[in-house]
Amino acid sequence: MYKTLSSAVNWPQGLPEPGTTTVVCGDIEADGSVVVPHFIQGALQETSPGGATTAVVVLVSLTQTMSHYMHVMRKMGVNLARHPGRFQFVDALTPAPVGTELAGSGMVATATRPHFAVPDRADWSGFFGWLAHAQPPGCTVVVDGLCSLLDQGLGCGFAVGFVDTCRRIVEAKAARGAGAARLVATLFLDDFSEALARSLVRRSHYVLSFEALASGSSTEVAGQLTVVPGHLFCHIQKKEREAEEKQSAAEFKPALLHYRVSDTTVEFFSPGQSRMVL
């Protein structure tokens, strides 16, 4: 995925370790969801120890339709239609069930039809069962737009419970040792989501916070990214130190990076090290 970012957080394969939860935060001036396509691409390219590419990506979208993600991924050179069965799209945005007419525009096209629909945002039990039993152990779950649950009046406790359930399912899959299951969730930061963000930090291994520069953005630098270990990661490191075991290979210190966004990628670099700056 991103060599500079992966090196800063010690992700040798370019993705978080199996069984981990990563929270990506952004705001109106620095959109954290720019990394969603790259998590998808990295997971689709992930190989098993035998060299086979069998990992599955489950994208739960509360903000965009499948057409949006297909368009963005195509610009990155990835055709999602060529990964049948390995890319699963969960529609939690449109209220209509799969295959019904949407606002007089006709049936949803087969190519952009979701693999699972959630017409009732207050009831995710069907989705949790589908995720736990119908998806393989090597499953990367990406939740885009978690704050939309707050916008729909479901409350912070509901959103936290949603993430907790997804996290437990992912950890159970990773514990089987047969695949690289992980959870990634994006969150829009504002006055209404601060409590949710604090709760998720305590339930995550990695926290990626996108922020605008105090001096403003430019063509060379769009903003900065701060990467810190979440509460769960700190807890693991503490237990390892207390047991006097060797340090975890994934141990890292908080990192600060600048980034620049283009049509097809996001470039991360140490402050002052961009090719454009040099």
- As a whole number of angstroms, the C-alpha radius of gyration is 19 Å
Inertia-based shape:
globular
List the secondary-structure elements in sequence, H or E: HEHEHEEHEHHEHEEHEE
DSSP summary, beta strand count: 10
Main sheet makeup: 10 strands, mixed
> What proportion of the residues is helical, as a percent range?
25-40%
Which oligomeric state applies? Answer: single chain
Biggest sheet strand line-up: 4-3-2-5-6-1-7-8-9-10
Structural description of this entry:
With 278 residues, the protein is of the alpha/beta class. 29% of the residues lie in helices and 20% in strands. It is built from eight helices and ten strands. Strands 4-3-2-5-6-1-7-8-9-10 form a ten-stranded mixed sheet, sandwiched between helices. Helix 6 packs parallel to helix 7. The longest helix is centred in the middle third of the chain and has 21 residues, at 155-175. The radius of gyration is 19 Å and the shape is globular. Mean pLDDT is 81; it is low at 97-109.
Summary tags:
278 residues, alpha/beta, 10-stranded mixed beta sheet, 8 helices, globular
Element layout with pairings:
Elements: H1 3-9, E1 21-26, H2 36-45, E2 56-61, H3 66-75, E3 87-91, E4 116-117, H4 125-134, E5 139-144, H5 148-151, H6 155-175, E6 182-188, H7 194-201, E7 206-211, E8 223-229, H8 231-242, E9 255-261, E10 266-269
Helix pairs in contact: 6-7
